[in-house]
Amino acid sequence: MTKHRYTQQAQRRRNKKQVKRASWLIVACAIILIAGLIAPDHCTSNDRSINRLQSSVGDLETVITNKSLDSNILHYTGMTISFNPTLHIPNWVAYELTADEARGEEPRTNKFLVDNNVPGCASPDDYRNTGYDRGHMAPAADMKWSTEAMKESFYMTNIVPQANALNRGTWSKIEDKCRQRALNDSAIIIISGPVLTDQIDIHIGSNRVAVPQRFFKVILSPYSTPPTAIGFIVPNEAVKGGMQACAVSVDSVEAVTGHDFFSALPDDIEDVIESQINFNRWSRTR
To answer: What's the pLDDT tens digit per position in 16-60?
Structure first.
């Protein structure tokens, strides 16, 4: 059964986003309505445009989680997590990264913490002497805009066992490229996690934390022209061929994980951007 937990700062942040998106909708609809008054013959087309705008104003960070997985939804200051108390790792971690946030200067804490409010939360000691890094799903470098967000990024609810060669190699390079994309595209939506449809053969620590064989990441640029998205599926080891070798469509990630991403988008837009992949375009940044 899915449960929800909000922090006060997370609720304020969500409310602020909803107001911002609602304001954008009002302005956009006003423009469409004014255009309709000038050109009344296009009222039917304008009505369709308004409906499409209304349908797209939702929480793009919302993920429909694979129903076979245990899920406890946690709302932190800078991220939303579907935490799996059975496996002691997140199913996925989702957040928006804006250009302003990517320029944050909050220092990294490096202090891993148990979230005592979350049943099944692993301990930092579970990873000690195991050969696995404490791998962030929402990287600390994306949370430099807030002291609280930085602290919460080190909660073990945001951490998954990662091979050092992945954590400090291709995974880190994808994270760096995401920050560059946020600066280019004004804001992006990032969702990351382990692939939990694979068989789990390895567990670590006294809590028997699950070690996944693969990880995924999907990135949506809703404000680029046109809107674009890309996915990555990476093995939990050194990656031959780097980022490009792991780039896939969002549809492919959904097929592998059983999750549904970006369902708040209008269906026709969602269908197009989730089926396509253009790594060269995505990787080009100013």
So the answer is: 555 544 444 444 334 334 444 444 443 343 344 334 433 444 589
Domain boundaries, the chain: 3-8+59-283
Catalytic position from the list 75, 88, 136, 203: 136
Judged by DSSP in three states, 286 sits in coil
136 assigned to active site: yes
If one counts every other C-beta atom within 10 angstroms of the C-beta of residue 58, the result is 14
By three-state DSSP, how is residue 161 classified?
Answer: strand
Say how far apart CA 74 and CA 65 lie, in whole Å: 13
Tell me the per-residue pLDDT of 172-207, one tens digit each, with 9 for 90 and over: 999 999 999 999 999 999 999 999 999 999 999 999
**3-8+59-283: CATH, from 3.20.20.190, 3.40.570.10, 3.30.70.260, 3.65.10.10:** 3.40.570.10
